[in-house]
Design brief:
Number of strands: 32
Distance between the termini: 51 Å
Strand order of the largest sheet: 4-14-6-13-12-9-10
Helix content: under 10%
Radius of gyration: 26 Å
Shape: globular
Strand content: 35-45%
Number of helices: 3
Length: 492
Amino acid sequence: MIDRTIHARSNRYGAFVAPESFAFGEAGEYRVDVHATAREASGSWAGTRTWGGVVAVATPPILAHGQRGIDDVPAPRPQWFFRNQTTSRLGPSHVFLPFHAGDVAWMQRSDSGQPMITYQDLDGSLLTRMKPAVFCCGAGANFDARAAAGEVPLLIGRTDGIDGHVDPSRNDLWGYSYRSVQRPLVRVREEISDDVCSGCYWRFREQYAAQAGIGRNGDLPNDFKFQFGGIVLRGSLIGEPVYAVYGSLFVLVADDDAHGGTRTFPPFQGNGGGPDGGPLFTLKGRNIDLFFHPTAVRPGTILHRGERASFAGYSAPTLPSKIEIVVTSPSGATRTIRGQANAIGWFYDPAQDFVVGEPGVWRAKVMILFDGRTSAGQVTEPFPTGDVLGSREGEFWFYVVDSRSKQLEIESMAAPKAMTLQEQTIGRALRARRGGFGEAALPVFVRPADGPIAFTVTPPPGLTNIEMHVTTTMPGFILEEKRQTSLTYTYD
């Protein structure tokens, strides 16, 4: 076991820049525990987060898959389909993760998903070794048929015929997967198990344990999720452990979606062969087939001068796309970061990190291109391209300030709205509790959906010809970026 602990402090804007990178030098399982603490005069705060996964070699002897079709459709199930052309209907059934890594599941809001992970033994040698431990207690039901279809179930077993869950120390075979479904900044589902999926399905009106930012309505059209799986095969029957990884994309569509509703297809509207599932979605009048989702420096990130800038993220769909990022400093100096995502779309090269030495507005222009093979075949020119969602043709801003510079004073004023009787009663109670402050002393909270909110910046004294840059984002999307001389910004 390699155990590494990194201690660091985020800057005053909450941006966390690790002082070092960590390279996974061998295949295996990993676990990450994050502990964040903050101490201030009013008290101390803490948050934790834990997750795990798999690191695999580039060409493992098995190929990780989801599972074909919908759970109430009898086998053999189709790998690509429109739900409305199957025998299944919206309601109690669940749609599996796309069988092929890199494929896309478009799902209607009234539907539900189930994250099943299977695999294909490319040369058959693993199946021969595993067979003595597979056929125990009904666990091997339909094993041969599923194996022939490339959907080998992940099982835990013993060669003496006793259930592998009774005494784990005597197991000859361990087969399980890490399953992780994530919306930007929202955890959807995480599970580690064998072929069982107990309660791991989800419906899209769910509030995902009321995580911050989820909203009262759950998923909405154009929300997307990354769906990942990591396979582990180990034990005396396996010999050297085997690991494999899987990734696919989820896009929510409206129940009256014009492109056919719930469906699973290769991406790129038929480029590469196979059926046409349509664009991923339409955003700001553009059909989106491919985009880059940044996870390190993002639109609007604020760094301190002297900190390290890292550019990392995911290709969506989850394919080995080519990424190029041209970074321009406030003085006009440029550098280009380029490379190729891995098999499930992840891109990061720590050797291309750099220290930001100039305060001001920095520009990052992102271009992503895919010229390889999808599950249907080789794509052809013009190759699919994309950028960052909501950007100005790929360009977004991030900001660098001196750590000693003063914070700007910002006053926010919600647009007035009529208060309900309940709100008036609560307001009077709060004012009484605070000692009878006047009406003006208690601002009225206004949800952004109920009315615009204005922000006014007070500039430091002595400055002239002031220009303000504004970046407004939600997780996964740039809502607006603009430059203006007015020091008032209205979020509507």
